[in-house]
Amino acid sequence: MWTKQHSVVTKKVSKEQMWKLFANVNNWELWDPGIEYAKMNGKFEQGNHFILRPKGGPEIKIKIIETILNKKFVDLTEFPLAKMYGEHTFEDTKEGLRITTKMTVTGPLGFLWRKIVAEGIVKGLPSDMETQITVASKL
Questions:
Q1: Contacts 24+ apart (CB under 8 A), 89-94
Q2: For position 115, what pLDDT does the model report?
Q3: What pTM, to 2 d.p., does this model score?
């Protein structure tokens, strides 16, 4: 198993604004330059899924396996012989809102999918999170 995470603390945005940003999956390409599109039918809730197409890549089905309104959601991407989990949390602190994204890869071919997908996601988290904060602060 491989796990990496990144956190940022900010007073520029609320957990409700961050939740609104992520729950609007069909507009993710407006703030995520790494994807062509994301599409979801129905509500942003546990048990649903969405389709995401990274730039230059194939469509990927991502399942939402846990949601706690305005606090946390966990998504799951299944690859051949590996699973990648993205855990996204929004926590109020005295210093501001702590936003954390934790990526975990498991399975026999986890090392391969870590190299192909997860390490790039983690590398981009600092700049991606700043963009998310900027866009969410306007919601």
A1: 90/15, 90/18, 90/19, 91/15, 92/15, 93/9
A2: 96
A3: 0.94
* Domains (range + CATH), the chain: 2-136 (3.30.530.20)
Interval 4-60: pLDDT, tens: 999 999 999 999 999 999 999 999 999 998 899 999 999 999 999 999 999 988 999
The three-state (H, E, C) secondary structure of the chain, written as one string: CEEEEEEEEECCCCHHHHHHHHHCHHHHHHCCCCEEEEECCCCCCCCCEEEEEECCCCCEEEEEEEEECCCEEEEEEEECCEEEEEEEEEEEECCEEEEEEEEEEECCCHHHHHHHHHHHHHHHHHHHHHHHHHHHCCC
For residue 33, the model assigns a pLDDT of 87
Contact assessment for residue 57 and residue 34, using Cβ atoms and an 8 Å cutoff: no
Strand partners, 84: 77, 105
